[in-house]
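Trying the structure run again after the queue cleared.
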Amino acid sequence: MPNLLKQIPETMRKKGIPEETIALFNTPETGGAEAVMELITQMDSLLSEEQRLAIMQEQGCCKTGNPAAPHRAFGTLHAGKTLAEKVELLNKANIPHKAPSHLNDDGTLSVWWGSENLRTGNCPCGFIKKLPDSYKVPKTFCGCCGGHIRANYQRSLGVKLLLKEVVSSSSSSGGKKRCEFLFEVEGV
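Done. Tokens:
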């Protein structure tokens, strides 16, 4: 799991968040999942949704190494196909770190992450599983999983993706809704 307490402020700088805004954050040097959630809560009050999503889409686990290899191979194998064909094939592919997806009529991509069998505590994020069951997870944090999906799907589909919205989240809905991410597709 990446050290999000250091990584998120670094990403803020890369995304052009002014130093005077970053200085408003009370970011602990160390801490576990609850310290990260405190940082995310501060992001919710100090940054716009567009800024938060731009920062969180750069986070995420399993974006390199072995988890990324099947996505690179898929992308190479299907490089000559249309985006719609690639999405259909990816949905059928037996590769790790993928989720059902749908190319929408407006050209955006919807991706559903996590179990279809909704029940409390089924969040796929290992980081969130470290929190007490009663902990209220800010939906902004779930953009981190969006970053995981984004990195791997960019490899598989051969396009640039921009996290447009965390539509729903298992953890922030208390297990009532499945995780859904909406991506803008660039480079088609």
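The chain has two domains: 4-48, 69-186. Worth checking whether this holds up in the mutant runs.
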